[in-house]
Amino acid sequence: MSEPGHTALKPLESLAYAQGAPYVSAVIKREFADFRVDEELAFQPSGDGDHVFLQVMKVDASTTEVAKHLGSLAGIGSADVGYSGMKDRRGETSQWFSLKLPREHEGRLENLADDRLRLLDSQRNERKLKIGSHARNRFRLRLRDCEGPLAEFERRLEGVRVGGVPNYFGTQRFGAQMSNLQQVAELMRQVLAGQADPRRLPRFRRGMLYSAARSYLFNQVLAIRIERGTWDRYVTGDVMSLDGSGRCFVPSEWDEVLQQRLVDFDIHPTGPLPGKISPKDKYVSAAEAADIEEETLAESRWMVEGLQAFGLEAARRPLRFRAADLAWRWEQGATGELPDLCLEFTLPRGAYATSLLRELCLLRDV
Fold it and tell me: I need a surface site. Which of 197, 251, 262, 273 has the fewest CB within 10 A?
């Protein structure tokens, strides 16, 4: 394994933009209601079973905080609490949790509600809620104190609506000042020196660090594809993804039918989530696509080799997404020269609202 951390990490803000770096700006999350997210499950709970599914509205609370609180109320361990995805802390977010709890013990949840948590729905299901079990997230955002020409906001919004959004992983994956990546580098140094066993890390923490490393590497490849104008185009050897399904395929040849499906956002080129590539893996890039990935990842070879050494299996992720039902309106705010910009849109599982906002404007601190 090459020496960990021998190259400087590139933060997300330094990476390429599809429409060029924005110069207009706004404030987000001044109030909790300015950032509203509603999670939609990919299935309907059966109505019976050992697990109670709770749909809750949380305000100024992280997903892990709520999961710990619910487990404590129910008197169960963390392994018996499930949720589908992490949701923003600062905002109003509804999401589902599952608790392995017999019906006769549901009374333990009577005091669930407080000033940060409200119960919206309760249903039974046979199985625990697993990560990635939701289909989509619906967003309602309010951007305040907008600065810059209104026409530039409109131009960039139209660009997002028509051309889609680079599917960057958001900065929340990497921690404050990219601390998760710094911890990955330190962990790999210790493993190389025989001073640490990654299996002794708590499973959640270990997964978070691995995910940060894979997300960082994916972002670097996506940035290069944007710089070269191929993030939304097919290049020879690309692995393609079917929109909304997560399934991949490798075209035997590129033709007009596939090109039209690409234009219609029915299929997308993908980038790597590095790890060990199984000999049975059919979805491996080749030719020009592989050359781009290998050239880019060579700058962080230590991270790629570390993920392989830790046994993670390689995967693919679409390079772009398109927000469904994107709509916006301007409403007069209490401050600012421009009205407040109110946005509504729906994103597929795994896509970040912050990646969409990144293409729209610079976000100023509250």
Answer: 197
